[in-house]
Design a protein that fits this description.
The chain is of the alpha/beta class. The protein is built from twelve helices and eleven strands. Helix 7 runs parallel beside helix 8.
Length: 378
């Protein structure tokens, strides 16, 4: 497992990055703040549909500290994006939060009114969406879209409007290493490549220098070289600005390369939370180990890969087991089906499992592989 990429540093006053920077280490555990920037407790959400209620999230617990890069990993459908949308108040209208809290900087986001959330979004909490071509307005130049964000939050941030908004939009593009930003500021999204549009999305998200960035699968659809450049850009800016970052992905290799800590999700449950190196050295939840065993490692072969057995449970079922991995787990007992284990976010390495893996190999568990980093990350 490689250390995070660190050959990019955002220049404080603009200008393209020049040359490799000194290595930027992962956030040391001892520097984690006593009071987390984001503290999510007992967070549950359901979707009420014509075909029944979908129990999308149940009793989610996790924390994010200032300056920390946290990976949210799991199979598609595990609830990673749903969780982030709900915290920002941009969920589908069918979604309903049924319990819990999401305290950001002392304020519970789940109890805030829409006006308060609208003022926070883009200013204190920003999001990079999966598909930049969908998220960007196709008939508006990218520079004007950045100016819209700056103008919307100028009063709240006390920004100096004496400086041209266009100049600030050019600076925002320059900070994400877009070549010739004076010209690109007038370009439309359809005139740019996928990687360039993703950089514009990053510029939009970071224009007001938020405290928390949520990056939802920011490298989807990009080639490996562009993928590495985008991740270097996001994490480099996060380190320089001491910005907390939630990186949502199903790619374990990317999470291993770039995150300080990883939270594993399965079927709407947060099942394990640990520092990245500790998680890959010794996963404690059977699902985490299975997820790793299905990921190619440095010395693994096709024959050695072991897929996670079964499928995600139907979240519309009224008889879901207390542990939603129980029906896929060889270690499950009656207690797993009747009593839900709880993840303690205050612990350095926490697992929501009644029968966690130990240091001794278990006959019913698969060995964990360290994912092979992409050559572009080396």
């Amino acid at each position: 497992m490689n250390p995070p990429r660190s050959d990019f540093v955002a220049p404080p006053q603009g200008g393209a990055p020049s040359g490799p920077a000194e290595p930027v280490p992962r956030l040391p555990l001892e520097k984690a703040t006593a009071v987390p920037l984001l503290d999510v407790r007992d967070f549950s959400l359901e979707f009420r549909t014509r075909s029944g209620t979908v129990w999308a999230l149940e009793a989610i617990n996790f924390q994010v500290n200032k300056g920390e890069i946290v990976g949210l990993v799991g199979e598609s459908g595990s609830g990673k994006s749903v969780l982030s949308y709900a915290m920002l108040g941009i969920s589908d209208r069918a979604a309903k939060v049924t319990s819990g809290s999401a305290v950001f900087g002392g304020m519970d986001l789940l109890k805030a009114d829409e006006g308060t959330l609208a003022n926070l979004r883009g200013r204190e909490i920003s999001m990079i969406f999966q598909s930049p071509r969908t998220a960007l307005n196709p008939i508006r130049p990218v520079g004007l879209q950045i100016q819209d964000v700056l103008r919307r939050h100028a009063a709240a941030t006390g920004a100096d409007l004496s400086r041209s908004l266009k100049d600030r939009a050019v600076q925002a593009l320059r900070e994400v290493a877009i070549a010739d930003p004076e010209r690109r500021v007038n370009a439309y999204p359809f005139e740019m490549s996928g990687g360039m549009c993703q950089r514009v999305m990053i510029a939009l998200a970071l224009a007001c220098r938020p405290s928390l960035l949520v990056a939802d699968e920011p490298t989807t659809g990009l080639d490996v070289t562009t993928q590495a450049a985008v991740m270097d850009l996001i994490t480099g800016l996060a380190r320089v600005r001491n910005m907390a970052t939630i990186f949502i992905t199903h790619d374990l290799a990317l999470a291993a390369d770039y995150c300080d800590r990883i939270i594993v999700m399965h079927a709407g449950h947060a099942v394990e939370s640990a520092p990245t190196e500790a998680l890959f050295a010794r996963p404690q939840h059977p699902y985490t180990a299975r997820l790793m065993s299905s990921t190619p490692g440095e010395h693994s072969s096709i024959a050695s890969l072991a897929p996670v057995p079964g499928n995600l449970p139907d979240l519309k079922r009224s008889d879901l087991p207390a542990c939603r991995f129980a029906e896929r787990c060889e270690r499950a007992t009656d207690r797993c089906r009747s009593e839900r284990p709880v993840l303690d976010p205050t612990q350095i390495h926490s697992v929501a499992c009644w029968h966690p893996l130990t240091s001794e190999p278990d006959a019913g568990s698969a060995p964990a592989n360290k994912p092979t980093p992409d050559p572009a990350h080396a």
